[in-house]
């Protein structure tokens, strides 16, 4: 059946169902675009897939087919709970493109998240009372993903030692979670009277948060600092920290600076002049060498029309005297990008989506629920950019097809197991602003972006067995150990496949921070033809400093750089 570039609109109407806790399960109208409506395979393809019910200020892949969506407490007309209040968290199903409303009662506005080794999502911080919900500043919220419709939030409103708004979290090699920074009140830019230059752990190590000089040195652009667990020898406990223009290596066990790094060139790279930082994909081929790239940001806090930062800076931490090396941000540095999201793709490249070409992150305090705001960021950057870190400078960037939906402040994106990128959110408005009410409306529409590696005609492998297990992406992730060589079986329609493999953790996404996200290339040996396809041996990372333990880690098998039809969730068991 041919659609000739028209949209097929399928209205799916499902009666509201009430679960035991009176939360509504809501099936939303689903709009599909015919796959033949794609642009050139070199440009990638966008597909509108459904609605998230609430705006995706925060998101994380919490099950192989489920994305956890978290907004702030406020107006969400498409997500009413049974008592007439608006919901602000949903669980989005990637297979049905519908959502289930979750129950939250502490304000999650501009909060953070990370996973414990047991697979529990820990979400902390937030903002003041609003929309009838509790203060979220000191809140700890826990949730375990599920496929049976029974999971929901467990909240502890005063569990943090102090208030945190715009904090950052990271999963640690020892299975705990690190939590750093923020402010004790909402603000446009941090101030001395409200800053929180401390860190703490979950579960708690001390009753009170401990001071860290780095946040004082990077003031005032020190909200949502970049935190990355650094690969290194087993037992190493080093973090890369970056905020404003400052960067350092810091030991979370000794609580001491390991090395001061040079200031990052260009303007500030963190909120509200928001750029993004990432760990260059790791590989066994170079002994998991640690390189960091920081891209984009703003140039002038006082000018809504100031151009966004159009550079990236890259540093090799394995060098004896590490220095930042400037790179363009996109082909020919044609425009800068504020508030970009960076996705670690399974082929070892980085994809940048979302953002704006001018201004700063934030919204206008003068806005009211009757007066749509004047947006602080403009010129949406709608073309995805692909960065290949493995080729020479000047040849690293590619630009793809324009997103038909504007994604600016409070948008988010994450890799999902089929190799596509799930993109949602965008709400630069103090109050809900509908499609025809303002230039950049409150977005509940979700899309998938298909990178060109899915449109090149190469046969995609299907993983059929992992480490002796044939029940894959089931209720339990496949248990594996560090350094283990596992047998993997695949089916693929190709007489001459070329297999590679990687392990991905998609992280927790908000405000251009992809907390704990990373990908590592795995060694593939002993590829053999079998009656049903191919078998191979894949060696997992040697220890937890290379890849943190727990669930939510996804094994990809690629054929000639094209990901398989779905990645398989592994459970890396905590080291003794």
UniProtKB/TrEMBL annotation:
Which Pfam families does the protein's record reference?
Glyoxal_oxid_N, GO-like_E_set
The annotated region (Disordered) lies at 363-386
Indicate the transmembrane segments per the record.
7-32
Which terms are listed as keywords in the entry? Answer: Membrane, Signal, Transmembrane, Transmembrane helix
Q: Which InterPro entries match?
A: Gal_Oxase/kelch_b-propeller, Gal_Oxidase_central_sf, Glyoxal_oxidase_N, GO-like_E_set, Ig-like_fold, Ig_E-set
Per the record, the domain of life is Eukaryota
Residues forming the Galactose oxidase-like Early set domain are: 470-565
User: Ranges for the Glyoxal oxidase N-terminal domain?
Assistant: 85-453
This chain belongs to the protein called: Copper radical oxidase
């Amino acid at each position: 059946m041919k659609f000739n570039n028209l949209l097929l609109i399928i209205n799916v109407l499902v009666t509201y169902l009430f679960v035991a806790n009176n939360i509504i399960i809501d099936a939303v109208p689903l709009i599909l675009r015919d796959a033949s409506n794609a642009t050139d395979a070199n440009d990638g393809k966008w597909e509108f897939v459904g609605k998230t019910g609430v705006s995706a200020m925060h998101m994380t892949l919490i099950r192989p087919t489920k994305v956890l969506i978290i907004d702030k407490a406020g107006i969400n007309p498409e997500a009413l709970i049974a008592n007439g209040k608006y919901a602000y968290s949903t669980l989005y199903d990637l297979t049905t493109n519908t959502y289930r409303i979750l129950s939250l009662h502490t304000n999650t506005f501009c909060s953070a998240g990370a996973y414990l080794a047991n697979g529990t999502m820990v979400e902390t911080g937030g903002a003041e009372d609003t929309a009838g919900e509790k203060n979220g500043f000191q809140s700890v919220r826990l949730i375990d993903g599920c496929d049976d419709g029974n999971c929901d939030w467990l909240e502890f409103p005063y569990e943090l030692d102090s208030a945190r708004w715009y904090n950052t979290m990271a999963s640690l090699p020892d299975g705990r979670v690190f939590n750093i920074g923020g402010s004790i009140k909402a603000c446009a830019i941090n101030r001395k009277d409200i800053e929180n230059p401390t860190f703490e752990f979950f579960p708690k190590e001390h009753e009170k948060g401990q001071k860290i000089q780095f946040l004082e040195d990077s003031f005032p652009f020190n909200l949502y600092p970049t935190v990355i667990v650094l690969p290194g020898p087993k037992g190493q406990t080093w973090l890369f920290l970056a905020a404003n223009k400052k960067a350092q290596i810091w030991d979370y066990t000794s609580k001491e600076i390991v090395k001061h790094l040079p200031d990052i060139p260009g303007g500030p790279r963190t909120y509200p002049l928001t750029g993004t930082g990432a760990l260059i994909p790791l590989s066994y081929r170079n002994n998991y060498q640690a390189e960091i790239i920081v891209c984009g940001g703003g140039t002038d806090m006082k000018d809504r029309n100031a151009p966004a930062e159009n550079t990236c800076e890259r540093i090799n931490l394995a060098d004896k005297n590490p220095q930042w090396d400037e790179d363009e941000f996109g082909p020919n540095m044609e425009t800068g990008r504020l508030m970009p999201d960076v996705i670690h793709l399974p082929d070892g490249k980085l994809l940048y989506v979302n953002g704006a070409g001018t201004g700063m992150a934030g919204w206008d305090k003068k806005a009211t629920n009757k007066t749509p705001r004047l947006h602080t960021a403009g010129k949406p950057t709608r073309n995805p950019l692909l960065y290949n870190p493995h080729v020479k400078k000047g040849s690293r960037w590619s630009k793809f097809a324009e997103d038909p939906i504007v994604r600016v402040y409070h948008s988010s994106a994450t890799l999902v197991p089929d190799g596509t990128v799930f993109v949602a959110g965008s709400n630069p408005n103090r109050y809900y602003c509908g499609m025809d009410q303002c230039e950049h409306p409150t977005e509940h529409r979700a899309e998938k972006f298909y990178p060109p590696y899915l449109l090149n005609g190469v046969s995609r492998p299907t993983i059929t067995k992992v480490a002796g297990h044939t029940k894959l992406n089931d209720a339990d992730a496949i248990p594996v150990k560090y350094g283990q060589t596992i047998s993997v079986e695949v089916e693929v329609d190709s007489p001459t496949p070329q297999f590679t493999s990687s392990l991905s953790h998609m992280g927790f996404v908000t405000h251009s921070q992809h907390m704990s996200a990373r990908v590592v290339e795995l060694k593939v040996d002993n590829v053999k033809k079998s009656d049903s396809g191919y078998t191979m041996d894949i060696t997992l990372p040697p220890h937890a400093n290379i890849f943190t333990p727990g669930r939510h880690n996804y094994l990809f098998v690629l054929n000639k750089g094209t990901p398989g039809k779905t990645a398989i969730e592994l459970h890396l068991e905590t080291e003794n």
